[in-house]
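PT: before anyone asks, these are the final sequences, not the draft ones from last week. 292 residues across everything. Please model them as a single complex and drop the result in this thread when it's through.
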Amino acid sequence: MNDPAGATLPAPTLHAQPVPGNKGIWVGIFCVLVEFLLLFCVYFIAKAHHPAAFERGPDQLATVAGVTITLLLLTSGYCMVKAVAAIRRDARRTTFFWVLAALLLGLGYPIVKFFEIRWNVAHGIDGTAGIFYTVYYYLTLNHLVHVSWGLLGLIWVATRTALGVYSSRDHSGLEAAAMYWHGTDVLWLIIFPFFYVLR
Amino acid sequence: MIGKAERTWLTLVALTLAGAWLAETGHAGWPLSLVVAGLIAVKGRLVIDRYMAITPAHPRIRRILHGFVTLVPLMVIFSHGWGDVLRRLTTLG
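LR: through. Structure below.
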């Protein structure tokens, strides 16, 4: 009777939450998935109307750029897996190291993209080079925009990790950034074969 | 030490390089479409289940993510096999 209501209930831990990160990030992730699903429809419809252009298109692109971006994103994602695992052990310095590694690898994406586009333009592949390349620029640059949001998120969580904000009990912000980052990874794993492999 | 995360990363890298090899050898047609659909499904599931560790998450989140990486490969197969149907459905006039 002396206990205030609910005082004896165990405090809910973040690990027990069924939503990884926080609900807000999932609203964002699902909006991005819907957006890209529509863009993929654009890709399939354009491909259905211009099959020859989509059969020839990948031959002109630099596959090495697409592969490098994929490897950078996969390795960066792996670093975020390690970062989340480290903060769950309260290993804050290790967490910071992994987030920083994820960020540095992620920054490789826009750099590779810059050189890829420069190479494309030097070979006459710009947005007016044909329907395949229009859709290619449309989807890949859109993805680059979302990766940029992810990179800003990583800078934010790297700063907060360095300030010692996160702990094993409270790291939903770090986990949310990791979820978004992995979400951009999933999208790229679809975009890569669309433009560099599939004919 | 090679743990679950490392094994996942190595598998994803190997599948990516397999895709790159396919791109460079200039394969086309049904076999390529089926392989690409499979690669998208497997790599997508690996990232969702192992990187995002979504298994204990809210079932709705899990279902939507799994649905996404199942739907897109089906779209790959549909667009390859029934491209003329898609073209007819999306032609104005």
